[in-house]
Specification:
single chain, 346 residues, D-Maltodextrin-Binding Protein, domain 2, 5-stranded mixed beta sheet, 14 helices, binds glutathione
Length: 346
């Protein structure tokens, strides 16, 4: 214990001395930058229905957008203080590791090589997805093996490229690729028949299909070939900022678990602490958790009030009453048999 303390103290000293020399390598101080600027720069994909897209009324909307809005509410008290930066599957990691954006919230899968190599740190899964396949209905294809020898439209720098290579390689199947960075061009190439199939996160395929003029002309196959835990990345080396983004997501999930919604959060906040200490800690009427993160103690209250809890966010953007009509599936709370298991706020 004693030795560990000494080592920590020595490393901190080295850190202090080395700090000015390595400025720019790590992006510590994001919270202070955000507070000074008065806004969060959020890297999104430009047109993924239900996740991040510019709506007809000129507002950015979607689940990935709502995570940035929640962080803006928690840090700045105002969910609207977000500048959106469109990123592609290829340039997204440069945008986050260079500090051009503060959060990458863009259907990005958590993988070991990304955490290790790309100058970015993952926060926590925000949506559990898996890789699927879409093809032309007229082919009458019902299983992946029927795509042996097919030409695939692929987004560069995605897990989808690698998973396809692994899966087809292992099964002894062949394919050709057409790689296009801009997703609108990629999907239009697919629709024009330049490729027989397209493979990506299932949510991405479903989101795109809702935008097609004739969605029924395209089939999404029933098989999933990978795990895609999607969520936000932050720049590597800023533990405070990573905590803030991670715990804002957990706060919204805990709010759902505790039955706190955007509609009842004021009433819940006014209830005596003893009635439900977990809710009191979440909403900052008991304890100082927000301050420990460098925020106000109403950080989670602001996020829930302005953006909604996780269940509301899911329902508003991708749930059964939206064009995407997604069931909760793996994204149910753990108490309902799903994978959404937010660490406790205490
Ligand atoms: N989750 C995968 C795939 C990411 C990806 O390419 N997603 C698609 C849709 S799910 C996308 O963002 N396309 C560009 C766009 O829609 O703007 C990864 O992290 O590599």
């Amino acid at each position: 214990m004693h030795n560990k303390k000494c080592l920590t103290a020595t490393l901190s000293l080295i850190g202090l001395l080395a700090g000015p020399c390595i400025a720019g390598a790590a992006q510590a101080g994001t919270l202070q930058d955000v507070q000074q600027r008065g806004s969060i720069r959020c890297g999104v994909s430009s047109d993924k229905a239900g996740f991040s897209y510019l709506s007809d009324d000129g507002h950015w909307k979607g689940m990935d957008v709502d995570l940035c809005r929640a962080v803006a509410a928690a840090t700045l008290g105002d969910a609207s203080k977000v500048e959106y930066v469109s990123t592609s599957s290829k340039n997204r990691f440069t945008a986050i590791s260079s500090g051009e954006i503060d959060i990458l919230s863009r259907s990005t899968t958590w993988t070991a090589s990304r955490d290790a190599n790309l100058g970015a740190d993952f926060t926590t899964p925000w949506f559990y997805d898996g890789q699927g396949f879409m093809t032309h209905a007229e082919f009458g294809i019902s299983k992946i093996e029927d795509l042996d020898g097919a030409t695939f439209c692929l987004s560069p720098g995605t897990t989808s490229e690698q998973n396809l290579a692994d899966y087809f390689g292992r099964k002894g199947l062949n394919y050709k690729s057409v790689v296009i960075e801009k997703s609108s061009e990629l999907y239009s190439a697919f629709q024009k028949g330049r490729c027989d199939a397209i493979t990506n996160d299932l949510t991405g395929l479903a989101a795109r299909r809702t935008l097609f003029a004739n969605p029924d002309d395209y089939t999404i196959l029933p098989t999933i070939i990978s795990k895609e835990p999607l969520g936000a990345y932050v720049s590597q080396g800023d533990a405070q900022w990573r905590d803030i983004v991670t715990w804002t997501a957990f706060a919204l999930m805990n709010a759902e678990e505790l039955g706190v919604t955007s509609a009842n959060v004021d009433q819940m906040r006014d209830a005596p602490v003893a009635d439900n200490p977990k809710i009191a800690r979440l909403l900052g009427t008991d304890g100082h958790i927000g301050e420990r993160f460098g925020l106000g103690n109403d950080w989670a209250y602001q996020a829930i009030k302005q953006v909604g809890n996780y269940g509301e966010i899911f329902a508003n953007n991708v749930g059964p009453d939206t064009p995407l009509k997604f069931e909760r599936g793996l994204n149910r709370l753990w108490t309902d048999g799903g994978l959404i298991y937010p660490a406790p706020i205490r």
